[in-house]
Amino acid sequence: MLEASNLECVRGEKSLFRGLSFRLAAGACLMVQGANGSGKTSLLRMLCGLSPPAQGEIRWKGEPIRRLAEDYRGELLYCGHAGAVKDELTALENARISATLAGAPVDEEAARAALRQLGLKGREDLPARVLSAGQKRRVALTRLLLEKRRLWVLDEPLTALDKAAVANLCGVIDAHLAGGGMAVLTSHQDLPLAGRVEHLRLD
Amino acid sequence: MSNGIINWFKFSSPQTFYPLAGKMIPWFWALTAIFGVAGLTIGFFVAPTDAQQGEGYRIIFVHVPASWMSMFIYLVMAFWAALGLGFNTRLSGMMASALAPTGALMAFLSLWTGALWGKPMWGTWWVWDARLTSELILFFLYLGFIALQSAIDDARRADKAGAVLALVGVINIPIIYFSVKWWNTLHQGASVSLTKSPSMAQTMLWGMLLMALAFWMYSIAVSLTRVRAIILERERHAGWVEELPELKS
Amino acid sequence: MAETGILSALGAVIRRDLLLAMRRKSDVLTTLFFFVIVVSLFPLGIGPEMGMLRQIAPGVLWVAALLASMLSLPRLFAADHADGTLEQMALSAVPLGVLVTGKIVAHWLVSGLPLALLAPVLGLQFDLPADALGVMVLALLIGTPVLSLIGAVGAGLTLGVRGGGVLVSLLVLPLYVPALIFGAGAVESHISGLGATAHLSLLAAFLALAAFFGPWATTVALRIALE
Known about the structure:
The complex is a heterotrimer of chains A (203), B (249) and C (227).
Chain A: E1 2-11, E2 14-24, E3 29-33, H1 40-48, E4 55-60, E5 63-64, H2 65-68, H3 70-73, E6 76-79, H4 91-101, H5 108-117, H6 133-146, E7 151-155, H7 163-178, E8 182-186, E9 197-201
Parallel strand pairs in A: 3-8, 3-9, 6-7, 7-8
Antiparallel strand pairs in A: 1-2, 1-4, 4-5
Chain B: H1 2-11, H2 14-46, H3 60-87, H4 90-122, H5 130-151, H6 155-186, H7 202-234, H8 239-242
Helix pairs in contact in B: 2-7, 3-4, 3-5, 3-6, 3-7, 4-5, 4-6, 4-7, 5-6
Chain C: H1 3-23, H2 25-46, H3 50-72, H4 74-82, H5 85-90, H6 96-125, H7 130-157, H8 164-172, H9 177-191, H10 197-226
């Protein structure tokens, strides 16, 4: 499904990795590991099509993602370091607006349900400014529940989350994988996933 | 046909272009000297004194070619920029950034000589003539391009961002020129045109043409020299650069 | 992507940016006050002679409008870039060009439109006759979207760049020249009795061109900035 062949990443004048290839089938999860600055985030951004690889190609269902453009983006969900959560908007507004911007509008009830599922009950109508870092991260993660996408690319999704939230998130990812979804993620913490996890070390 | 294409792509790699440019540069300098000497000789000694403007008019042998080049270089720059953006060739971006300072220099030269000419002709260093005003804005566009490229650290991003700016500029330049001309006629300003001298003698035209060729050759020579410097700077870690005989000492 | 989806996304971006502007009113008001103050300073620098002020009024108002819209440009994408929203937009199933167009429209609604509506009040300071004020507003209504459209390209190119705020003015101001000439010229030629139609038509043509190329160039610039 998702296939990367012979990728090279160059940052500035330094080549972070080269000759990287992998293949990810439906229901599989790829855990990217490596030290700080080994190019994990760069790889994830490449897989999304944000930055082109210096060498090599990424294909989705056999087609290069460059050519697929919006068709590929419609199956992709990326969650980066920055959560795209606006301080001025409430948690509910944030959830609904980011779904709409992604091209998958949801009604208020669905958004409230997603926020509740991630443990934000009672915080739905507070501006994100007053939420803690972990709560903001949960607001960002509601996108996992609201946008129905095949491929999840998650960069350090556990940052600032407490134990309960980590368990909660693992459940969400497991359900996604069990339903035939795919995930590529980075994490410095252990992610106790039920399904099979492949590992990719960059260094 | 297919041969031609292969050759072009071969020269679009910095590695093959670097020595090629090195071989071409002396020839362009030689042509610059030949055309320049011929043009200046005609301009200063052969061309007749203008009945109305006296000897002062001779500055047009520098002014007019400089103005032509400043506009032409922007077009060439935009062409390379578009090529770089469309085909992602590294050399195109380097060419565009190598051309910009020369273009800015030409625009500045044109403004300066325009002012020098304006003083004896109109008694003032600056008139809001349509051509001079457009030239001034063109100069600003060059400065913007150079400033943008030098503000971005990543060379590839600088190339691409510069390319977008050059393309937006090249679409805008005709509109700017038209609007300035329109503004100028509306305000009934000094509309004495620099090139429309009453009697453009044949010899004057020749002088101007030769000078234009000299400026052209100079621009190519300087840009090639600059592009070689840019190639060395950007590829300094590549194997082939370290193998260069001139760097082994 | 269905057409209705695109339209609803466009509307959603505009609504979102207006909502954000409502919750950060000071940003919008600063731009407006800047416009008012710059325009009001000119008589102090030039002298209160009404004939002279009438003559320079269109130019002064337009130059002040250029500077004011310039002032709001760095904010156009900076906040979305910093908090990751821009990345999400670039990865949306909705084409980025559509979302960018929405942002430009919203930018005009909060920075261009208020200037146009405020201009008559300031024009009174310069003793412009009522019909000239009308032409002024019309010219600003056609011209300020051009400023947002071209400005967005500059904002995209300088996103996250050292000294981006100052740099954007260097890039964008020369490109504003036609809007300035046609816009200020419309009022002047109306006052001199030549009629403003020609100027306004040219300004509208420039707007059409900017509307065609602006969002496209901005999209390319943003993708470059995100790489």
